[in-house]
Amino acid sequence: MRKFIASLLVMSFVGCSASVLAKEENPFITSREIDLIKLLPPPPANDSLQTKEELREILALQASRTPEMVARSQADATENIWRFADVMGVRFKREQLPAFAKFFERVEASEGAVVDTYKDVWKRPRPYLYSSEVKPVVKMSHSGSYPSGHATGGTLMGIVLANMVPEKRAEIMARAAEYANNRVIGGVHYRSDIEAGRIAGTVIAARLQARDDFNMSFEAARKELRNVLELSPEPVGSK
């Protein structure tokens, strides 16, 4: 009997651990909590004047982009918080920030859990599917073009990161804007996709800040980050 009870306890512990792990890997928020149809205008129609103007912008960038611009857009095709390393400095590394890394995995997952649903609703064709003149230099995607997931995620990550390190807010948000714009340079998004993504990212960030589970994880990640970056526990003038 004692062995049986002990076995049950072990199984229970393992089950609880797996449950906690699964919960940690879940997004903080999904499309069930945020209705982008109510928050965003529909994408421009394929044959609209706006789409044609946005296509001209993509083709103009395609003609003028330098090898450095191409390399930057290709590097920014990766969706994670570590793309902000050039702003945050040499200490900004995954191996030094385990709690921070786990936290931002959930933040990043939240973008997809919200945006992917509405990409499937609007089904806007990517620029290279609309015009054979568009020659992407980054990996092509089968998902809808509107809104941009990268612009949403970059804006969301930028806002959250800037709230942790407000001393670098201007640089962080400039990097988030560049990250989003590189999707147009890369030939895989229209300008209106980017603008809608920035709105979506801002809305998701605001909604997350109202959640207790987010705020608790945010505080632990913020503390770890500021310690690793050798910043004061609280920014000067924050209180």
The topology string of helices and strands comes to HHHHHHHHHHH
What would you give as the CATH superfamily?
Phosphatidic acid phosphatase type 2/haloperoxidase
Name of the level-1 CATH class:
Mainly Alpha
Helical coverage, percent range: 55-70%
Quickly give the structural class: mainly alpha
* CATH architecture assignment name: Up-down Bundle
Instruction: Determine the number of helices (DSSP H or I, runs of at least 4 residues).
Output: 11
CATH topology: Vanadium-containing Chloroperoxidase, domain 1
Strand tally, please? 0
Largest sheet: none
Instruction: State mean pLDDT (0 to 100 scale).
Output: 90
Estimate the global geometry from the Cα principal axes.
globular
Strand content of the residues, in percent? under 5%
Supply the number of structural domains. 1
What's the N-to-C terminus distance?
58 Å
Domain Phosphatidic acid phosphatase type 2/haloperoxidase: 101-209
InterPro entries: Acid_Pase_classA_bac, PAP2/HPO, PAP2/HPO_sf
Keywords: Hydrolase, Signal
EC number: 3.1.3.2
General description of the model:
The chain has a single domain, classed as Up-down Bundle (Vanadium-containing Chloroperoxidase, domain 1). The chain is built from eleven helices and no strands. It has helices spanning about 1-25, 35-40, 50-65, 65-75, 85-90, 100-120, 125-130, 150-165, 170-185, 190-210, 210-230. Helix 4 crosses helix 9 (about 170-185), helix 6 runs antiparallel to helix 8 (about 150-165) and helix 8 runs antiparallel to helix 9. The longest helix has 25 residues, at about 100-120. The N and C termini lie far apart (about 60 Å).
